Amino acid sequence: MLGGNVKRATVFILAKADDSTKGYDKVIVAYQGSVSGAKVERKNLTFTNGDYDKLYIRVDHDGATNVGAWSMLYWTEVMLVEGNTLPASWVMSSGETASQSQITQMVQDLNGFKTTVSNTYLSSSSASSTYPTKDSVAGTYLNKGDAAGTYPTKDAVSNTYPTKDAVAGTYLNKGDASSTYLNKTDASNTYPTKGAVADTYPTKTTVVTQINQKATDITSSVQSWTNDRLNSYSTIQQTNNSITSAVSSKADKSQITQLSDQITTKISKEDSATQITQLKNDINLRIVEKGTVTSQINLESGKALISANQILLNADNVKFSGSAFIPSASIQNITADKISTGTLNAKDVNIINLNASNISAGTLSGSNLKINLSDGSITQDQYFTTTTYSDGAIKITDKYSNSINNTATIAPYRKGLGGNSTIMGLEFTSGINSVKFADDFSVSTDVKFDKKLNVVGELVAASLRTSGGAFSIVGGNTIMNSPVIGGSRLQLSSYQNLSIVDMNDNYLSVTAKEFNTKSLKSVKKNIKAVDFYALDEISKTDITEFEYKNSDGYKTYGGIIGDGYSISKKILSSDKEAVNLYSMNALSWLAIQELNKKIEQLEQKLKEK
Fold first, then answer.
1. How many CB atoms lie within 10 A of CB 208?
2. Edge-to-edge strand order for the sheet containing 54-61?
3. Which residues form the Peptidase S74 domain (predicted)?
4. Residue 424 main-chain phi, psi, to 5 deg
5. pTM for the model
6. Are 101 and 40 in contact (CB under 8 A)?
7. Per-residue pLDDT tens over the stretch 484-505
């Protein structure tokens, strides 16, 4: 037995009686174990068949050691001997072993159909070290005959091929006995030892052909092995929509893949490869080294692409027909001793000396100065880029600012004051629009702001007057009185409540001549009679004595909201943090009315007695 990438093999003896209608009646496991991948081994199996008359031999391939790779199991001859005595060692004849060992295998299961043919050659130990050649008709190996290296032909008289030598067991050759090939000699079916003359070991060269056929694909391959090393192979895989063929020898490999709409040819060696891909409207040729495309040519309808680190045009004449041109964006540098042209258009031209009698348009640029002759602008480019335009506008840009608004424009304007009289001013049209003065700045005349005045510091004025009769605070709700010395402030909260607190949010007293509450029906809604007893709500409220935190010992009497104190919800403010004095006074009036009514009822009862 011989195996390649075989994990284990099992040999079964299937026994059957003559009159049995079954496929077999008993299963005997005769052998289960490893198989050599280096040489053909003889396995001696002993079993007892009992009363069974017919025996079948079944050999199972129990899986591959390297899953995913080819795995092959071969067995050649079976000798069956009755009794407990093993036969004498079997010696192959020289004719059977002369220069070859052939193995043919056919495997068919539910997954497909596979055939394998193996042919093993032995190297010669003679000085010529040549291998026999297989005759294409007879399928046998012939030896070289005369000095010209031809093979023996039929004898002209007997019309027969030369026969084996009776003593040596080899084919007859013209020449001496040393020109014969080495054959296996001993019972272990091993290879011969070193030759006496050449002092070399014979090399085992195996050629394996396989056809693996499934329902969806057919794969055929031819492999050449030297001992246990794969030298070269070729394979063809065919499905219903593709054909792939490959030939490999050591590190070199070529592959052709054909689809219905694409053909790809690829030749590779280690990390380098060339590939040609052909579609119905596209042809691509590329060279790939270490996964990177280094050069390629792509042809498609109306367009051709040539991409490489260097393109060489080596010819006596190079002609561009039609309107061929190279876009300016694709040209980085041009080196020429002389350029003759009517018009030279370029974004940047570096000239050491320029003599010109007339410069009509364009841009003149220095290291930090640029003059545009078309629009009349002059730009100096330092930390702050300043451009002066023909209309008098000045644009200032901070080159090193990270701010979004890093550009400001100042433009002059004229404004008519009636008739032909005008005034001239400066207009900040974009940017931050701020003016900073190192010292105090005073204006002796009126200053007008068409939009708004933003003051970062303090705005100090003897009086502040609004012409529209309204004063509003946008983005805040506090009017403060001298915050530097910790004064009080008038705080407006959500345009609903007015509170007066100090800088520590302590509430302050309010003194006024009158506190009037608007009570017209026109300012009220959902008006209805009270449906509860005011005396009950007053009784719910705990009246306590307390001091405000900033009152300095001044005693106050009233209810407390929260922290376990009881207070009527009827007198709370809308934010639940204060009491509504108007509601408290009204409920007191209502309680007096309720008491007055009870007094009247008691007086009436006394009169009735």
1. 22
2. 26-33, 9-16, 54-61
3. 519-606
4. -115, 140
5. 0.31
6. yes
7. 445 555 555 554 566 777 767 7
